């Protein structure tokens, strides 16, 4: 049986690290995406030694508008074209009133939490649908369900991700591809 491949963003800490361990323990090969090349290298070494799975690391900042394209180009370059699990976990938060926070802070947050995951879905999802199999997890938050004073943009970005996931779940329900928020 061929190994499956999980692409996990925000892989070097928190929930991302737990997703890495879960998939490695399951024998899945990994594409690990994060901002810090040193942390990615350390994680790759640990995971390959402990679980004997193939690991590809991609260092990219999700706040870069072309981050999804950079990831996809690296997948094409390394011929890692079959992604079975896409875990959009990278996220960015922030605290402060809407008028206190800078436009740059809020645009970075919107790019990390909404734009880059959406672009990554646009690039990877068609292949999953064509194969009639795949699993997508968009890591959201209970913050998606309520307004969030002092974190208005963060709560709004998580609401977007949850709404998108729910709509995609419906659109893809007969394709063999699952979507979870």
Describe what you observe in this structure.
This protein is an alpha/beta fold. Helix content is 48%, strand content 16%. It contains five helices and six strands. The chain has helices at 14-25, 37-51, 67-77, 103-131, 152-171; strands spanning 5-9, 29-34, 55-59, 85-88, 134-138, 177-180. Strands 3-2-1-4-5-6 form a six-stranded parallel sheet, with helices on both faces. Helix 3 runs parallel beside helix 4 and helix 4 runs parallel beside helix 5 (152-171). The radius of gyration is 16 Å and the shape is globular. The model has no long low-confidence stretch (mean pLDDT 96).
Indicate the percent of residues in helices. 40-55%
Strand content: 15-25%
What is the number of E strands? 6
Q: Number of DSSP helices?
A: 5
Helix-strand string: EHEHEHEHEHE
In spatial order, strands of the major sheet run: 3-2-1-4-5-6
Biggest beta sheet summary: 6 strands, parallel
Q: Give the radius of gyration.
A: 16 Å
Mean of all residue-level pLDDT scores: 96
General shape = globular
Unreliable stretches (pLDDT < 50, length at least 5) are none
- Secondary structural class: alpha/beta
Rounded to the nearest angstrom, the distance between the terminal CA atoms is 28 Å
């Amino acid at each position: 049986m061929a190994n499956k491949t999980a692409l996990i963003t925000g892989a070097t800490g928190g929930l991302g690290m737990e997703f890495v361990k879960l998939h490695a323990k399951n024998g899945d090969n990994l594409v690990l995406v994060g901002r810090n090349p040193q942390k990615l290298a350390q994680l790759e070494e640990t995971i390959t030694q402990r679980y004997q799975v193939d690991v590809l690391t991609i260092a990219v900042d999700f706040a870069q508008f072309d981050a999804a394209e950079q990831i996809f180009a690296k997948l094409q370059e390394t011929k890692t074209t079959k992604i079975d699990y896409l875990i959009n976990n990278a996220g960015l938060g922030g605290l402060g009133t809407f008028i206190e926070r800078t436009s740059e802070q809020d645009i970075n947050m919107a790019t990390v939490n909404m734009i880059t995951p959406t672009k990554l879905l646009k690039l990877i999802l068609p292949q999953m649908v064509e194969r009639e199999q795949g699993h997508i997890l968009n890591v959201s938050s209970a913050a998606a369900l309520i307004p969030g004073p002092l974190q208005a943009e963060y709560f709004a970005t998580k609401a977007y991700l949850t709404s998108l996931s729910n709509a995609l779940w419906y659109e893809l329900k007969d394709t063999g591809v699952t979507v979870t928020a």
